[in-house]
Amino acid sequence: MSLGFLFAMSLPALVAALFVLAVVERFVRRKKKGTPMATAGIGELGATFETGKRDELEYRKEERQLRDEEGDAAPPRSRVDLDGGTAVLNVPAQRRPS
User: Fold this and answer.
1) Cβ contacts of residue 18 below 8 Å, gap of 6+?
2) Where in the chain does DSSP place strands (E)?
3) Is the model's pTM score more than 0.85?
4) 74-89 pLDDT, tens per residue?
5) Which of the 8 DSSP states describes residue 70?
């Protein structure tokens, strides 16, 4: 085995390759959307050595997949009591144009 082969198979070679990829992507990908490959690679490399990083990456992945519902962010107007067999419906008053 040569010294060049050992360097190419080592962690510093991976970091150097990710750095070169980041520089190339910086100039090639001007305004394209999405996560650059170098960023994803550095994130995965960090997840290998940091314990909480893997959980953070999984959380971000889940957040991207969740749907963002628009609402009034107020407590619900209606309540249903299944044990008591009652339902309370509060219907808001109709607004009249001024």
Assistant:
1) 38, 41, 42, 45
2) 79-81, 86-88
3) no
4) 666 778 888 888 888 8
5) -
Whether the Cβ atoms of residue 45 and residue 62 lie closer than 8 Å to each other: no
Q: What's the burial of 25, exposed, middle or buried (CB within 10 Å: 0-12/13-18/19+)? A: middle
Residue 43 burial by Cβ neighbours in a 10 Å radius (0-12, 13-18, 19+): middle
The answer to whether the beta carbons of residues 45 and 17 sit under 8 Å apart is: no
Nearest CA to 25 out of 41, 35, 12, 36 is that of 36
The residues that bridge with 24 in the sheet, in sequence order, are none
With contact defined as beta carbons under 8 Å apart, do 14 and 45 qualify? yes
